């Protein structure tokens, strides 16, 4: 047995060892806690930085003018826009175009073979001058698109008729330019619904006052008839719209409406003989298309003589 002093000394040494172990454990726990706290602080700091970045990005987006925001979505280069195409084919043998009565300024106009233009059909049934245009309202227009369009739409009084016979105009961007190329005086008259009527007199060409510029102020739901009060056989049509989503079938029967934003849109078919061109699947000449990015082809649209009231 150890002496009491030794026992006491031994006891005191062991007690010191236990206390030291406890202090070291406490130190390790404190260090570990500090490490955890530091990690939490770093994590919170990173989260805060990411949050601030997102908030800044959101603030930037919200501060961008709306047209610019639209361009991010409706960028032609990004392939986000659609194009609507199709071809009109007249089924059957078209009637011979009627020769019109020319009884004014005969010395000038009598030398031309002036015929009815209300039904123009090509050798293989290609149907020209069918209007196709957007009926839906509020369809966005990509920014910068106006720059792709000519500044004016021209109607020429030439060879004692209006050329071209059918026109359309984005009236908020384009002006209507009228010119007389004939050596006789001409008149251009039209009355848009809810807009200013026009009764323009053009002097014989060449010379002064042979042209004029007109501005439309209201969109029209269908083409406006243009006449000449001097020469009753002269006839043309123009469709003023507040957007660029329209087309007129060409001599090959085809039409093309580019730059359409994706979405479900309603369109109208119109032809001067019947106005609303009603066909199977096109009640009252209307149809709805879900426009997707890229080409949206309606294919061949067959038009019967009965649908154009051809007997």
Automatic annotation (TrEMBL):
InterPro entries: CarboxyPept-like_regulatory
Domain of life per record: Bacteria
Region (Disordered): 1-35
Biased composition (Basic and acidic residues): 1-11, 21-35
Record's protein name: Copper binding protein, plastocyanin/azurin family
Protein source organism: Thermogutta terrifontis
